[in-house]
From TrEMBL:
This is Oligogalacturonate lyase. GO terms for biological process: pectin catabolic process. Residues 2-293 form the Oligogalacturonate lyase domain. The keyword Lyase applies. It comes from Klebsiella michiganensis.
Length: 293
């Protein structure tokens, strides 16, 4: 139930390899997760964070008070995309997508919920939608409803690519709810991200199996002009996990060459499209940089 307060008992352990203290904040008997790695999770003072929890049998958003060791339920009912939501720049709101159809804003003080944008009946909201730095604009991907299908395993993920679903990269004004199409193609699109502090530049990807996509990472101007690829794949090479450095200075991503045991962290300059290898890294799910990379 929205507004419900859940007391938490933090579990403190020591990592056997590093000796660092590890604190488990959510209970072991309930599946919980944080939002997507580059979406805002913590309040600016670091005292609270949002997470997705299945306390009621389906995913909802919760706000965790670290000092108080308690969580407040922010949303209720099934259908929350608990990976894509985020806290607003001013810490006053939670933004998230409900039932693949509605972009909603939750006021953290009153828990009042507002539908800011309704997806057209012929389309489905897909993936993680991302706001610009001042939380006035958003970019997202929609898939034609007749082409959309749930992706519950990697086999379905691969097969979906070859169906060539019709997708569109959209911009939403978060004050008016007005939507504008930036790019529409018969191609699986994903991972839209505003360049921080530059509302004129949007990164997005050609989604799909690493051995099938032509070139994953792309930039496009917000007015739909000047679409350009960040880097072309070589044979046996794949790129993934792209994200903007928080100050907007570079796009980071992970590169992998077939049969190479290592992964490599790269930096792409958004102005010159120069790509530079930074370091070898171990295989991992997600990584993130500090403010300036």
């Amino acid at each position: 139930m929205k507004g419900k307060i859940i007391p938490l008992s933090f579990l403190h352990t020591q990592d056997s390899e590093t000796g660092h203290q590890v604190i488990r904040m959510t209970p072991p008997h309930v599946i919980c997760h944080r939002n997507y790695f580059y979406q805002k999770c913590f309040t600016r003072d670091g005292s609270k964070l949002i997470f997705g929890g299945a306390f009621e049998g389906h995913w909802n958003y919760y706000l965790l008070d670290i000092a108080g060791q308690q969580a407040t339920q922010l949303t209720d009912g099934p259908g929350d995309n608990t990976f894509g939501g985020f806290l607003s720049a001013d810490d006053r709101s939670l933004w998230y997508v409900k039932n693949n159809q509605q972009l909603r804003r939750v006021d953290l003080a009153s828990l009042e919920e507002q539908v800011v944008y309704q997806v057209d009946d012929q389309w489905v909201a897909y993936g993680t939608w991302v706001a610009n730095s001042d939380c006035s604009q958003m970019v997202g991907i929609e898939i034609k409803k007749s082409d959309w299908q749930p992706l519950t395993d990697w086999g379905k993920f691969r097969a979906f690519y070859f169906t060539e679903p019709e997708c569109r990269l959209i911009n939403i004004d978060l004050h008016s709810g007005e939507q504008r199409v930036v790019l529409q193609e018969k191609r699986w699109l994903g991972h839209p991200i505003y360049r921080p502090f530059d509302d004129g530049t949007i990164a997005f990807c050609h989604e799909g199996p690493r051995d099938a996509i032509d070139a994953r990472m792309w930039l496009i101007n917000a007015d739909s002009s000047h679409m350009r690829k960040v880097r072309q794949h070589r044979s046996g090479e794949s790129f993934t996990h792209e994200f903007w450095v928080p100050d907007g200075s570079a796009l980071y991503y992970v590169a992998h060459q077939e049969n190479d045991p290592h992964r490599y962290l790269y930096r792409a300059d958004p102005a010159t499209l120069e790509n530079r290898q930074l370091m070898a890294i171990p295989p991992c799910s997600h990584l993130m940089s500090n403010h300036d990379g």
